[in-house]
Amino acid sequence: MTPKKQVDGFSEKPTKRGRPRIAQYTTVWGRAANYKLMLSEKWPNLGNALMRCLQEADVIDVFEVHAQPYARQFVPHLASDILELIRSAKFPQRANARIKYMAESLAGRPSVTLRTSREVCAKLRAIEGAKSPYKIIRKEFYIVCQCGYKGPGEYNACPKCHAQISFINEILADMGVFQGDDEWLRNVRNVRRTSPF
Hints:
Elements (H helix, E strand, L loop, with lengths): L24 H27 L4 H11 L4 H4 L4 H9 L7 H12 L7 H17 L11 E3 L5 E3 L15 H7 L7 H13 L3
Antiparallel strand pairs: 1-2
């Protein structure tokens, strides 16, 4: 007799709804970036020769001759996909567009289809584009210094007397020193006294 309800409901992780992903999006995105770099470096010689290919063997030969040392990244396992891409009616005409199209299409293979791979890259490109182009270049603290200054600190120091902000209090608080762990503090002091440095 099997129980309908498990006794221990916390041991098992709940499954997520929907169909599970076959490939990690970040892996596809990173591989596409690598493929773009490789193809853009070799495209002046590789591009024209690749467009004349009629069979998978031709694709393998072209990559072996014109795309060294990156040939093993693409052939023989992606030769049929490359041939399908260059025969496609949607294959772009300009060199940069061809490189991007091929790199993003091949990045998810063999886990996902060529189109799904391009869609994953488009989705992550949109996420990257939505991020702010700006970065925080300085953070400030409101400080009360012993010299009498009260206000924002500049570059982790008092702007009046240039006393540096000590972060040791926060570090010690995180370690539990200020929560009644007096024995730990005594041990640290003993080590400092007995240390030859």
